[in-house]
Amino acid sequence: MLTPLDGQLSPLTQQRQSSAVVYLFRDEFITNEAAPIITPRTSEPGPGTLTVVADTENQISVTSNKLTFGVPSINSWTLQQTASSVVTRAVGVISFVTFSVSTANYFVPLWLCSIASSLQPGDTRNKHGVYVYSGTRGLYLWISGFQINTGYTLALNTEYTCALLLRASGAFYFVKGGTFVDWTLLYVSTLDSTAALFMRANNYRSAFTLDNLSARQLPAPFDNEVSWRTFQLLNPPTGTTATHGTNFVFDIKYTYSADLLLLDFRIQDTTHYWQLYISSSGIYLRERNGGGLVNRATYAWPSVPNVGDTVWVVLMADGNRYCGYVYLPSFGAKFCWTYTDVSNLFLTATQFKATSISGGIPELNAWPSRPELPI
Predict the structure, then answer these.
(1) Which among 335, 298, 295, 344 has a CA at the least distance from the CA of 316?
(2) Sign of the alpha-carbon torsion through 85, 91, 93, 98
(3) Any idea which fold 229-368 has?
(4) In what order do the strands lie in the sheet with 107-113?
(5) Which of 33, 259, 291, 335 is least surrounded by CB atoms within 10 angstroms?
(6) pLDDT tens track for 46-93
(7) Check whether domain 19-217 has CATH 2.60.120.200, yes or no
């Protein structure tokens, strides 16, 4: 059985995190400026420049040391847009911004895009991002042009910080603030390896502020995925066991088969555990509490994958909340389900077992869902 990290960083790791900070872009909006602001503006304290791509109605200002977006007169993605100077992809480069919304009706506090000129949602040049959805303030993610729900809702007039930690291909998606007391890993993507990226903000019809818009290289252990990953399984046979953290995220590369995939986690004993169950019908979250297995959340395939298709599944288990996501090229990235277990079953159990594997798992990674990001 694998017995690697349980999601906590060691004192040595914490000591290594104190390395010198290297910023690629940094704007803390130190000097207030009425709209329309000078563009491109020199970031403060730097490095980098920030360009106002569009401010048709002169509603973007620096007020109270925050980049402030006013409510446009009409619903439109083209009226208010900003873009940073280029950020170059490298493992361990993180882009982040602190934001707060007072009037919500769609906006994007942070996109990583392949161009600095005008863009709208749905454009595949939007590579990674965080998106606040509608007046309901749903927390959504952009995954290489696809929009997915997280099942979380944000509060008005509350500061949140969202962060995108780049991989060689893909990104880790984080949030902190409000009810997210710790940095929380929401999603793991393997899609897109665009090298030159621009940090973008875009307003549809909201009032919000941005602060501390930054990109920097993180020190160890986050400059090397092996150093902070809890475990990795490559083509594990049925019966493989491992130890995950108390709170974790699995990203699973699965070769689809019409037969069953059964992955048990938070195993307390042989009759008390949670299970990720994938079949020709869909993706299920199941729980066993002494009796038989009970479906707690269900996702039906929009179209059944072909045998041999590669399917990416992300499972988040954070406290008593479970979220599932899936990506398949034929239908894109999808939110499967979220489930809150009011019974708080097996929260401290950390055992994993691949109970049944058909088709194969080329790769399964486990990550701590609440790592201490040094930003």
Answers:
(1) 335
(2) positive
(3) Jelly Rolls (2.60.120)
(4) 41-42, 49-55, 80-88, 196-203, 107-113, 126-133, 138-143, 146-153
(5) 291
(6) 999 999 999 999 999 999 999 999 999 999 999 999 999 999 999 999
(7) yes
Structure tokens at 316: 């988040």
| Count of Cβ atoms closer than 10 Å to residue 266 Cβ | 22
Assign 79 to helix, strand or coil: coil
- Structural domain spans, the chain: 19-217, 229-368
Residue 227 tokens read as 């150093």
Displacement of CA 287 from its chain's centroid (Å): 25
Model pTM? 0.94
- Neighbour-count burial of 40, counting CB atoms closer than 10 A to its CB (0-12 exposed, 13-18 middle, 19+ buried): middle
| Tokens of residue 147, six digits | 């929009």
User: pLDDT of 133-168, one tens digit each?
Assistant: 988 999 999 999 899 999 999 999 999 999 999 999
Helical H segments across the chain, by residue range: 11-16, 225-228
